[in-house]
Structure formats: C-alpha cells, structure tokens
Specification:
Layout lengths: L1 H4 L4 E4 L10 H19 L22 E6 L4 E5 L5 E2 L5 H12 L1 H4 L29 H10 L6 H15 L6 E2 L1 H10 L1 H12 L11 H15 L1 E3 L1 H12 L14 H14 L5 H7 L4 E3 L4 E6 L3 E6 L10 H13 L11 E2 L9 E2 L9 E6 L2 E6 L9
Antiparallel strand pairs: 1-13, 2-3, 2-9, 4-6, 5-6, 7-8, 8-9, 10-11, 12-13
Helix pairs in contact: 2-13, 3-5, 3-11, 5-8, 5-9, 6-9, 6-10, 7-9, 8-9
Length: about 400
C-alpha cells in the first residue's frame, strides 16, 4: 500500500545501485569547482574579527578553510582545515537537536518559538507568546540548554552534551577551549541579562525552582558548549550527520531521529544566519548556521555537509567569506532546495544503471523503504541534478 501511494518516483533494488552518492565523474567536477570558489572567496577581505568576546579578537583574519563530507563518507578540504576554533553559535543546532530527540518537539516548543526574530542574535526580547523567538539565537539556546538533563550537575551535563556532539562527529575528537570559556564568563554581561530576563518572564521549564545560583550555573553550561573546539574537517562530519538524517556517515550509527533532524534543519533554514536568515534562504536555499568565531555549516540534505571558517564577520555576525562561498556554490550547482532540477537521475550510472525519472518532490531525495524480505531504494530525480 505504501508503494502505491508514492507517485512519480523511480524504484531500484538495492543490489543494483552504486553505494556512492556522488559518482566519480561528478565528484571530480565538484572538487574542482569548489576549489575555484575557495580561491575566489579568498580575495574577500571585508569584515572584522569579533571583539566582544576578548579571546576571539586574537583570531588571524587571514585564515580561510573549507571541508566537506558526503553522506557516504567522502571528504575534501581546502586551506587551513586543521585550524582549531570554537563552535560558538554553531553549537546551537546540535544542542537543539539533542533536546528534540530526547524530549520531543511538542515539549521543546512549549518554551521556544520557531520564528525569525528580526533582531540581533543577543537582543533581550521575546515573541508575542512570551517565549524566545527560536533556538538559534542566544535567548532560545539558553532555554534549550536548560532542558538538557536539568537534574544533573554541570560537569555531568557538559560531559553528556560533549559526548553526544562527538557522536555527530562519528567519534572524532572535540576539545574544550577553557580560555574562551573563562573570557565569556567574565564579559558575557548581555547573556547574564538575557538569562535573568527569561527568568523574570517564566521562560524556563523549571522556572520556579531556579535560584540565582542555578542561573549562573546554566550560563556556565551555555558558555561551555559554545566553547567546544574543533576544525572544519570534524565539523563537516557533524554537518554530514544532519544531511544524512541523523545517521553519522562513517560508522552508520544513528545519532538522533529523522524527525529531530527535519525540525533542526527547518529552523536552521529560517533562522540560522541571524538577521540575514531571510536573504540566505532566498539566495542560497540551504539550511545553514554561523557562529561569531567565523565558522559556519551548510547542510545539503541527502548529499553532504560543508563547514567553513574565516574570522572576518559582516554586520550580521556571519563570516563574510562563508556567505560568499554559499552564494557562489548555488551559482555553480543546483543545490538550492527550491530549484526545479531536471527530469533525469543518474545516481546508478557508475554501475551502468541509468534510470529515467519523472519530476518528483524535492522532499524525497534519497531514502530507504523496506518491504518483506526486500530493501528498496527511492531516488528522486534531482539528487544529482546539481552536477548536470
């Protein structure tokens, strides 16, 4: 019955298609073109390094790195891809995804909205329902952080968050930048004000039980996950796990549910780039999230995750080179989620299997259905249309 209800999709037995999401000819084209975009974006020297967190002002503005990982584990990097940086706000989609997975979206969104704020990411404001606008800004992420194992001590909570983030990274190492953490603790007065404003407006799930000391511990935990340190290679792995529906690409372990990924990517799409999120959705059409350290992730669902790092920021707090890269990527490949695509799919071509497809919805790009004793692969027409 399920198969009968799915229209305009081509079905191929699993034994007849290549395991590679990007066949070698398209991979070579992808790598070549991204390398060219990397070099073009390297010339952009506009923007300023973040200074409101003292430790971040020490970043070298010349640094520029890109890494990608496909959902089947292919990788490529350009520039200083081993350079360490703090996640800052790029930790937010991952803590949000953890909360969604463990608590459910109904519970999480009783306390946090889903709409762009139209304000700076660290503004002291709530929506008309007296909730933070979304989980991708400071107020929303502080509330989400308060939901994660609230009965535990801070060191256990942070160990839990760090271990879950390592799962997104297929077990790769994530470290902690204590200097940045202490810097935020000493100078994060705006975030302290936000935390108290949230308390005043009964925004926390355990609002009545939160003392001033509890608020300070909560802010420390928030600063801790913002101070998790990585590089673009590991971060691309984390983004690829989101692209792969919550299954990390290296070991194929399930990290979070597909529903949690769907909701996370939806909020990233509409709210992930601070007050430039609308322009990003319009021009680039991909879920994205940036952080004031200069890092950024792009998620191409069912294809790959991309991470970028360049400390020069625009007026919105987004990496200048990262945004330029995203725009030029869409000019080169049809990765925009609203792109009409083509009428043919060549995902199986590397094994001589070429499939004619009718136009289908971009919402089903590459997934698996199971019938008794048989695995079926579903391909929509525009999985590889970006390369044609």
């Amino acid at each position: 019955m399920l198969l009968n209800r799915l229209h305009h999709i081509c079905f191929v037995k699993a034994s007849h298609f290549s395991s590679s999401v990007v066949p070698s000819t398209n991979w070579e084209k992808l790598i070549k073109e991204i390398g060219l975009i990397y070099e073009r974006c390297k010339k952009y020297e506009a923007g300023e390094v973040a200074t409101y967190i003292p430790q971040l002002r020490n970043a070298d503005p010349k640094l520029w790195a890109i890494s990608l990982m496909t959902i089947d584990g292919k990788t490529a990097s350009w520039g200083e891809s081993k350079q360490k940086f703090c996640l800052q706000s790029v930790s937010k989609p991952f803590t949000y995804a953890i909360a969604l997975n463990d608590l459910g979206d109904d519970y999480v969104h009783r306390f946090v909205g889903q709409e762009p704020s139209g304000r700076n990411f660290n503004d002291i404001c709530l929506d008309k329902n007296k909730k933070p606008h979304n989980p991708m800004i400071n107020s929303g992420s502080i509330v989400v952080t308060s939901m994660i194992k609230p009965e535990w001590t801070n060191y256990k909570r942070f160990a839990f968050i760090l271990e879950r983030m390592r799962c997104f990274a297929s077990g790769n190492e994530l470290t902690f930048d204590n200097t940045t953490f202490l810097s935020e603790c000493e100078t994060g007065h705006q975030n302290y004000a936000i935390a108290h404003y949230l308390k005043q407006n009964n925004c926390y799930p355990t609002n009545d039980d939160l003392s001033n000391d509890d608020l300070m511990e909560l802010l420390k935990l928030y600063f801790m996950h913002c101070s998790i340190q990585t590089d673009t290679e590991v971060l691309a792995n984390m983004a690829a796990t989101l692209a792969n529906g919550g299954i990390e690409p290296i070991n194929q372990g399930t990290v979070i549910s597909m529903k949690a990924v769907q909701n996370t990517l939806s909020v990233m799409f509409s709210c992930g780039m601070y007050d430039n999120s609308g322009q990003m959705a319009f021009k680039v059409g991909l879920p994205a999230k940036s952080g004031v350290s200069g890092n950024m992730i792009l998620v191409i669902p069912n294809v790959m995750g991309i991470s970028l790092y360049s400390p020069r920021l625009d007026v919105y707090g987004n990496t200048v080179r990262g945004v330029k890269f995203a725009e030029q990527l869409i000019d080169t490949f049809r990765f925009h989620l609203m792109s009409a695509g083509h009428h043919r799919c060549s995902l199986c071509s590397s094994r001589g299997e070429y499939v004619d497809c009718l136009r289908s919805s971009f919402s089903i790009r590459h997934s698996y259905l199971y019938s008794p004793g048989q695995e079926i692969c579903v391909h929509s027409l525009n999985v590889l249309s970006p390369f044609s």
